[in-house]
Amino acid sequence: MPQPLARDISRHLALRARWHPLEIAFWVAALASIFLLSSKHLILTEIAVLALFALSLDLILGYSGIISLGHAAYFGFGGYVAGLLAKYNIISEPVLALVASGLAAAVLGFVTSFLVLRGSDLTRLMVTLGVSLVLREIANQMDWLTGGADGLQGIVLAPVLGLFAFDIAGHVAYVYCLIVLFLLFLLARRIANSPFGLSLRSVKGNPLRASAIGISVNGRLVAVYTLAAGYAGVAGALLTQTTQFVSLDVLSLERSADVLLALVIGGTGYLYGGIIGAVLFKLMQDYLANLTPQYWQFWIGLVLVIIVLVGRERMASWWAPLRARLAPDRSRAGGVQSVAPVEGS
Amino acid sequence: MPAALETIGLVKRFGGITAASDVSLQIEKGARHALIGPNGAGKTTVVNLLTGMLRPTAGHILLDGQDITDVEPYRRVHLGVARTFQINQLFADLTPLEAIGLAVSERMGGGRQWWRLVGKKTEIVDEVVSLIEQFRLSDVMCDRTAILPYGKQRLLEIALAIACRPRVLLLDEPAAGVPEAERHEILATVAGLHKDVTVLLIEHDMDLVFSFADRISVLVNGALFVEGTPDAVARDPRVKAVYLGESLDG
């Protein structure tokens, strides 16, 4: 009797980690876009960068419940580091520079993570916003290094891995971004399905209980915040490398808001939300900007209001069957319907 | 031999209110110790102080003779102090399996492992199996905790504490709100705990207290009032006067 139970348990615990056919289809489609949508590679590159950025926000918002309105701080920091590394020829090979930029942003994330540990959601919103504003102003003041409001000019990149030079049509850039996105997605997926990832979800769900079963809540939050900052830094570095330019706008509030918007559109806490959200957000932006060049933000704003008013839960329930298949164990529990109150917290 | 858990002159003030005043408790190894008292006597405050969720205004807490007054709550769990909550504190979005597996894996130091996949370590799975069986949760083990019946949630609440394999277990009204029919199930699991585990029980139900405890401390207005064996406490006229009168005579 205990034998089959052990097998059931082992299987159930490993359930979330299993690859679903829809996931494989998703990445096959991404791969196909390289060959089938070669005229769209410029916007696809933008999408891939935003997707990675949104994935990084999902790590802290979706997996540990930290809400941030200043995630651009790490995106922009990574972007400037990549730009400076290339401009001053410190590391001209893009992949190495990417790693260095990600690490630099992670260090910044680690240092600032201690600021967001304390307080409620509102405090965190303000602290993260404040950090990004401070960083933007520093970049503005240090114009001898960053170019200030004019942006950092004269970034020249060596070929990727010494083999693939960036081309004007952006084919190499897109393939490069897509590979980075895919690899970092794989890493995030692995982490999300590890005991560490499970402990993050417990910290998000009920920090009081998490500490009562021996989890260092602050330790886990610092770890995931650092990781997410590193991801954001890589995304920022990708933007710099693919556009060969970086300006103060990478640190702007708008940048932080856009990525939050993309993530909210796609849904949090299942890793694909950021990517799907980035695709929808960019396509919507592109379509609306063509339609009404001056008023596209009106429509984006309207969509945001609708999403919030209708409620993510209700929208998610419309496509719950799909989500249930992406995360098979949730189907049993009735998809993503409202949660009955169990905790007193 | 030092007591399993000891407090020396523990004081906790919230502004002008003294929730615990000069509480000196000794809980011997392997004891079944009950802490009782009227509503608002400060029982939960004492548990919160013992687990580190509150910092005392004054006084010390010793675990096996070692001062743990300034130790972080999660580290106290590693040192062997676990608790249950009067009001369920569960992970609504996790299944009982995931929650218990997490608690077991944390105890084994697995929580910082970010590369291994969940559910691949046999020693964790084996222990989860035995906990699931012990607490009769196998029929709901794959359901989200949020949708479990209350009695099952209550069992999970205790299972999570046991999964930490505590040397000292603090039970804050484990049977609170559980229907009469399911009560015995919870009491049986508590009574069936290993004799080496020291238990401090906080409870309103006097039948449960007197059937379970071998020592009872009575807390009134944040201060220890009487302490002794169940018989002695039951006979004590002062206890009858402030607290037990009706339930014992009645």
Write a structural description:
The complex is a heterodimer of chains A (345) and B (250). Chain A has helices spanning 2-14, 21-36, 41-64, 72-87, 94-116, 121-141, 143-146, 171-192, 195-205, 207-212, 217-243, 253-266, 272-291, 296-310, 312-318, 320-326, 328-332. By secondary structure, chain A is an all-alpha fold. Chain A has a domain at 19-251. The model of chain A is unreliable at 328-345 (pLDDT under 50). Chain B has one domain: P-loop containing nucleotide triphosphate hydrolases (Rossmann fold), CATH 3.40.50. Chain B is built from 9 helices and 11 strands. The longest helix of chain B has 14 residues, at 150-163. The radius of gyration of chain B is 19 Å and the shape is globular. Mean pLDDT of chain B is 88; it is low at 245-250. The interface between A and B is large, with 46 and 61 residues.
- Order of strands, main sheet of chain B, comes to 7-8-9-4-10-11
CATH class categorisation of chain B: Alpha Beta
- Tell me the Rg of chain B in angstroms: 19 Å
Largest interface: A-B, 46 and 61 residues
**Overall mean pLDDT score of chain B?**
88
Taking pLDDT < 50 over at least 5 consecutive residues as the criterion, the unreliable ranges of chain B are 245-250
How are helices and strands ordered from N to C of chain A? Answer: HHHHHHHHHHHHHHHHH
Please give the count of helices of chain B: 9
Question: What is the CA-atom radius of gyration of chain A, in angstroms?
Answer: 20 Å
The number of distinct β-strands of chain A equals 0
Distance between the termini of chain B: 41 Å
Helix content bin of chain B? 25-40%
**CATH topology type of chain B:** Rossmann fold
Distance between the termini of chain A: 38 Å
